[in-house]
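Q: Structure for this?
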Amino acid sequence: MSKVYDIGVLPGDGIGDEVVREGLRVLSAVEEIYGFQTKRESMPYGADHYLETGETMPDEAFDRIRDMHAVLLGAIGDPRIEVGKLEFAIIAGMRFKLDLFVNLRPIKLLHENLCPLKDKGPADIDMVICRENTEDAYCGIHGFLKKDTPDEVAHQSMMYTRKGVERIIRYAFETAVKRGAKPGADKPQVTLIDKANAVRAQDIWTRVFAEVASEYEGVATDHQYIDAACMWMVKNPEWFDVAVAPNLFGDIITDLGAMIQGGMGIAASGNIHPGRVSMFEPIHGSAPKYRGQNKANPLATIMAVSMMLDHLGETPAARTVEDAVASLLQSGKVKSLQAGAHSTSELGEMVEAEIRTAVTS
Ligand code: IPM
Ligand code: MN
């Protein structure tokens, strides 16, 4: 009996259904090759569903997902809906309600032509950002006083728990151990990124990081304030191996990271609770202007499928997908990762062809 995985498929808004369709094409190809199956349940949540029904994402949907192995999400966000409403209910909803405390964002340059930085190549850009995913300014603790008056006050809390900080830092160290030392380094390295010099509550990150680090003699450590980290990631990306950051700074620095690996067309992420149902998505948004035009680049979603396979324990299939994308980009057949350079379906077909060639040769 082959293994069967229950997968929730949530294409969402804008270009979501087009990029997810190509992700599923690639998933089907590796299922056939590696002899496992997925039972896919399509979930309609997003702007259209909200406009039709008034429902964002109901509790029953989260209950269904708790019984699944993974969710593949396309993108959420639509100009017809109040800013943040669907993002909060669906993306943050899943992260918080399913306790997906790791936002794993690999940044790997697959071909030097994709990098906007001068004189940097694949050997320089190979890092993993572990973004905390359930705390910080994202908790939604905010408010307004005297709204719309000259005396208005607005506040939002950046909140960290001992448990929340420790588990993501520990995950980062475990990731470093698993990755091993980078070529030329003695040890793998974890960099803590924070702003504890200004956001004093982040002192908890400093203390917990030091404590956890003391348990990992085989892992080197580094620390950078977020502003400096933005600078060094552009100037010396080779200094980064594994980095760990609070939610908001992790959000910001991974867009920067996406650009140095070739842009939003290729950057994927996993929202993970180890050993439990987890959610995988491209980092990019819903790009409403490209909706329905077969122009969006599906490679980020395809890379998210690779991360999902890894989470499911289908590691050879995950590697095959990642290697296929890498060899496609190295072949020079992909002109550019910009939307419209190739059609969405064409890129999906190219990855599938690459996979089939790789496994038969
Ligand atoms: C991301 C996105 C989300 C975030 C938005 C859509 C709420 O930017 O996944 O990086 O800030 O986490
Ligand atoms: Mn973001």
